[in-house]
Amino acid sequence: MTLRERRLRTAAYWFVLPAALFFILLNAYPLITVLWDSIHFKNLLNKSLSGFSGLSNFKEVIHNEYFAKALWNTVVWTVLSVAGEYVMGLVSAVALNQQVRGRSLFRAIIIIPWVVPIVIAGMTWTWMLTPDYGIINLWLTKLGIIDKPYYWLGELDTALLTVVFVNIWRSFPFYTISLLASLQSVSRDMLEAAAIDGAGVRTRFLRIVMPQLKTVSLTVIFIHVIWTAINFDFIWVMTEGGPLYASETLPIMIYRYAMESYNFGNASALASMMLGFMICGFILYYLFSQRKSRT
Secretion signal: which residues (predicted)? Predict the structure, then answer.
């Protein structure tokens, strides 16, 4: 290796060093701390209990009376949100891909929900859904859909589903933009040739358009599964996990352990379990992608 090559390599290391330190301080160190605390007793209200705990924290979390409910709510919250976002994103992307008047304006407007901060969106929808003065109940009552104002965020049956609806409203523009970009790369010649051969609109969409959206769709869905599963702020702003834990998910359960019970051992154990779920999901996605690329 020449002197010039050694200097270039040294310079490259110096350029990478700030990014490496940033990663260690903001990602690696907190992650290692969480994993370490998950196998140790760490309760600020009972400092006499300390030391290695093994799997005790995990057992205590699993045997918590609200763990099964929170796990189910997390699955429902994630699946319904991602499915609704994808369907809405696909429909709006197809609509915005058509040659309609004012298309540029509609494309600019549809991004508005995505750029609204979660706290502002959550508080605004909470006010709109309030049974006393909420505009949603007013409209539904005037249209005859409901007889009297309904407490959408305060009932056991509708609290979580209402937050899912609001989350879909806010997040589907991300799918719209991603799918719209992919739709614009679909060959017009191929679609016209299929139409000449007698393929209908439905056949062209399912056999030509959707296969070309597969890569983008899987990527966006996988990213949003992770984002939605670990989302804390949206549900907390709107319901705080209530009523009676009806909308409590695993991230909110972690918050309660850490910030209300001050039991960082249990909070870290539950966070480690969620991390394990995410890693397993990533591995399955990677294996699926590798298998598809070989075929």
Answer: none
Q: What is the dihedral of CA 86, 89, 92, 93, to 10 degrees?
A: -110
Structure confidence at residue 166 (pLDDT):
94
Is the distance from CB of 175 to CB of 220 less than 8 angstroms? Answer: yes
> Which residues in the chain come in under a pLDDT of 50?
none
Q: Cβ(231)–Cβ(194) under 8 Å? A: no
**Alpha-carbon distance 246 to 22, whole Å?**
38
The DSSP secondary structure of 30-98, one letter per residue, reads HHHHHHHHHTEEEBTT-TTSEEE-TTHHHHHHHTSTTHHHHHHHHHHHHHHHHHHHHHHHHHHHHHHTS
Tokens standing for 67? 């763990």
Q: Are 222 and 285 in contact (CB under 8 A)?
A: yes
Residues 272/279, Cβ–Cβ less than 8 Å: no
Report the predicted TM-score, pTM, of the whole model to 2 decimal places.
Answer: 0.87
Give CA–CA dist 294/210, Å, rounded.
20
The predicted-structure confidence for 108-119, as pLDDT tens digits, reads as follows 888 888 888 889
User: What backbone torsions phi and psi does residue 25 show, to the nearest 5 degrees?
Assistant: -75, -40
Give the containing element (helix H, strand E) for 176: helix 159-183
Say how far apart CA 246 and CA 153 lie, in whole Å: 10
What's the rounded Cα separation, in Å, for the pair 73 and 275? 17
Domain 67-247: homologous superfamily in CATH: MetI-like (1.10.3720.10)
> Per this entry, what is the length of the chain?
295
CA nearest to 56, candidates 71, 46, 42, 68: 42
Per-residue pLDDT reduced to its tens digit, 26-77: 888 888 898 999 999 988 888 788 888 888 999 999 999 999 999 999 999 9
CA distance linking residue 178 with residue 217, whole number of Å: 8
